[in-house]
């Protein structure tokens, strides 16, 4: 029998949904705030149990609060995922067909790249090759800006990658649509877009996970095949 949903659970869920994605320390503060406001039992190490209760009630609605790792700094994040729509179509209510096509093509560039990034030049060059209809580069720049604001893409010095929110929400879609190249991190088991790959056995690891795993080791060796890790460890 699932534990009862309290107002604290409902408030927590509401904030998470309106945020789109919430960083781990913020989620912990929110957990405490909701419990104290609603005068229900609070324990700082029970966030996962608290979320588990919400998830048991979300199950019939095909929704779930999922935890993911930022590829940038390794911090945990939480997002509410719609399990009924694992396709990019879940974005269809917010974007036009042509904008979605640009997003899909950007996703292709990022996932098929070696480092998990696509340059703005390469993305903008796609704008006049879209099947739906051609898009001017100025328009494409605006659309990319919106994707960054809505936390589907992240941008740094003209290079784009998938935002943590996108990775959490689209993990299943990416794993099933890019089976040859998509891989999970061998350490945290989350989808790895920006990763280092073992030259011997082909496993991948997020950069923050690589940093953590090899910390203090004199000679970095692959956690799976034990061969020398030839990539430069960050």
From TrEMBL:
TM region(s), chain numbering: none
Pfam families reported in the protein's UniProt record: SMC_Nse1 (PF07574), zf-RING-like (PF08746)
UniProt-annotated location(s): Chromosome, Telomere; Nucleus
Keyword Transferase in record: yes
E.C. no: 2.3.2.27
UniProt record, GO biological process: double-strand break repair via homologous recombination
Keyword terms of this UniProt record: Chromosome, DNA damage, DNA recombination, DNA repair, Metal-binding, Nucleus, Telomere, Transferase, Ubl conjugation pathway, Zinc, Zinc-finger
Keyword Phosphoprotein among UniProt keywords: no
Enzyme class of the recorded protein, top EC level: transferase
The protein's role, per its UniProt record: RING-type zinc finger-containing E3 ubiquitin ligase that assembles with melanoma antigen protein (MAGE) to catalyze the direct transfer of ubiquitin from E2 ubiquitin-conjugating enzyme to a specific substrate. Involved in maintenance of genome integrity, DNA damage response and DNA repair.
Quaternary assembly: Component of the Smc5-Smc6 complex.
The protein, known as: Non-structural maintenance of chromosomes element 1 homolog
Gene name per UniProt: Nsmce1
């Amino acid at each position: 029998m699932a534990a009862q949903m309290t107002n604290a659970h409902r408030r927590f869920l509401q904030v998470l949904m309106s945020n789109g994605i919430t960083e781990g320390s913020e989620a912990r503060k929110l957990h405490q705030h909701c419990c104290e406001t609603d005068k229900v039992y609070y324990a700082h190490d029970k966030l996962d149990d608290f979320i588990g209760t919400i998830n048991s009630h979300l199950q019939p609605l095909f929704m779930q609060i999922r935890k993911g790792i930022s590829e940038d700094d390794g911090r945990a994040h939480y997002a509410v995922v719609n399990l009924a729509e694992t396709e990019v179509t879940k974005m269809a209510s917010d974007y036009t067909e042509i904008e979605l096509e640009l997003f899909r093509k950007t996703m292709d560039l990022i996932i098929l790249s070696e480092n998990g990034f696509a340059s703005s030049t390469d993305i903008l060059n796609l704008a006049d090759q879209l099947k739906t209809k051609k898009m001017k580069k100025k328009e494409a720049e605006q659309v990319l800006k919106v994707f960054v604001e809505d936390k589907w893409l992240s941008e740094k010095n003209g290079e784009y990658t998938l935002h943590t929110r996108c990775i959490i929400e689209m993990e299943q879609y990416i794993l099933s649509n890019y089976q040859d190249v998509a891989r999970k991190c061998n350490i945290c088991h989350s989808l790895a877009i920006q990763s280092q790959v073992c030259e011997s056995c082909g496993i991948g690891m997020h950069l923050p996970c690589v940093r953590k795993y090899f910390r203090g080791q004199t000679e970095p060796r692959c956690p799976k095949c034990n061969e020398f890790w030839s990539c430069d460890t960050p």
